[in-house]
Amino acid sequence: MIAREALIAAYDAYLRALAEGRPESLPLDESVRFTECGQVMPVGSGLWGTVEQVGACYARFADVLLGQVAGYCAVREGGDLAVLMVRLALSEAGTITEIETVVCRRRGVLFRPEAMFAPSPILRKPDCPADREFLARVAHLYFDAIVADNAATLPIRDDCVRIECGEPVTCQPEDDERKAARGFDLYSMGVAEQIDCQFFCYCTAIKERRVYVDEEQGIAFAMARFDFPGTVRSWRFRRGEQRPTEPHQRVPRSILIMEAFQVDHGQITAIETIFENCPFLMPTGW
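The structure assignment produced for this chain is given below.
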């Protein structure tokens, strides 16, 4: 077990070193493994060579039992904004043995990094925290619900807000333009309602799951790969009207994702997500 303060300090030190371009300042283990967007590379490569600004911490989570710490923040490279996820594993001696990063770069939708220079607006310390076993199970229940298009066993509040790369995508005021585009406004629905309407039927598997638990904050944080084979051609809206899938759903791809699930009084109350597209079935590197 590693002290929470030591894990948080290691995360903060990583962001400082990244901002200063000084990977040598970190207490790296001689066997350290580093990935960016699933690719193994030397520490100091990738974003280390292009970053121009590292924003303040948007959210961070620590699993003291497993010696893991992770978080999100906004960064700037090439004059443009991006979103960075970092996960670190520490040894008992305090050296960094694993560095997993995902950089979410500019895309047309679900991308609002400018909102991530301030702390997460939806994560907070729970009034009635869950135990470690329940928190770990929650992440798998959520992933299983998406693949099954069925949220019946998912312990989640109707007003749970999910934010993806800074963009709120559930429980939003109904928007006439969004409703006209699809015939319904996906973002006005709750999380369970989105799952049950079967819109996510094009996601056929969620693999390489790794779940960690921040017991103090009542949060499960998980890394995984969502697989979209592109072969699902139609779906039934709320198990009724048959609709064709959308063009982006008919392209084979996967996404590398990190999701944080806030749990209070036995229910998911908030979800923070970042993800980046990658080739179909590309390994996460872990």
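Interim note for the steering committee: DSSP finds four helices and 14 strands in the chain. The helical segments are 4-20, 132-148, 176-182, 191-196.
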